[in-house]
Amino acid sequence: MTQPPPSNTASAGDAAQVSRQALRRRLLADREQFVAGPDAPAAHHALAAHLARVLREIEPELLGAYWPLRGEFNAIEGLEAHGLAKLPLALPCAQRQPPAMHYRAWNGRVLTSVDECGLPAPSDGPWVVPDVVLLPCVGYTRSGFRLGYGGGYFDRWLAQQPQVTPIGIAWSLGEITDETLVPQAHDRPLMVVLTESGVVA
Q1: Is 4 inside any structural domain?
Q2: For the purposes of burial, counting CB atoms within 10 Å of the CB of 18, is it exposed (0-12), middle (13-18) or buried (19 or more)?
Q3: Is residue 163 part of a domain?
């Protein structure tokens, strides 16, 4: 009896994962070079203005923000610069085992603690579910899919909160094609992606 050929599904999945890792490394290097360059201040100002306009249109009751790392846009400073400092905010808190993320209400005070992934996070305040969340993007597509850091924390949280409005935040240099970033089964398209150029997805 002839045996069927071995499946190459696992190897194809492994290759896709390696491809995403290589893409992520390249985009992170490009981003860090960009934010150290002369065009970064103007880009930050422009993105802050676009974000403020969108938030004034949708009027979130509680905004899930993020603590900026590795050249990410500083949304918290952007809100302050455009008179939105009093907008109720929450920040994510992640745990490693089992991998999960939740939000705590944040009063805007200096953060003195970190979560299990080493990211600045509130140590107290009630657990909350924001109605709008800002998601930092390493990369993005025009169809609204996001490339993150690979941990899947935002993806898992969004899958449990389908009523939440997700807004991607990125620099325009992070744009990638749909052919380059093929959505995975758990990926959910963002409502909108904002860059210094405005609404791009």
Answers
A1: no
A2: exposed
A3: yes
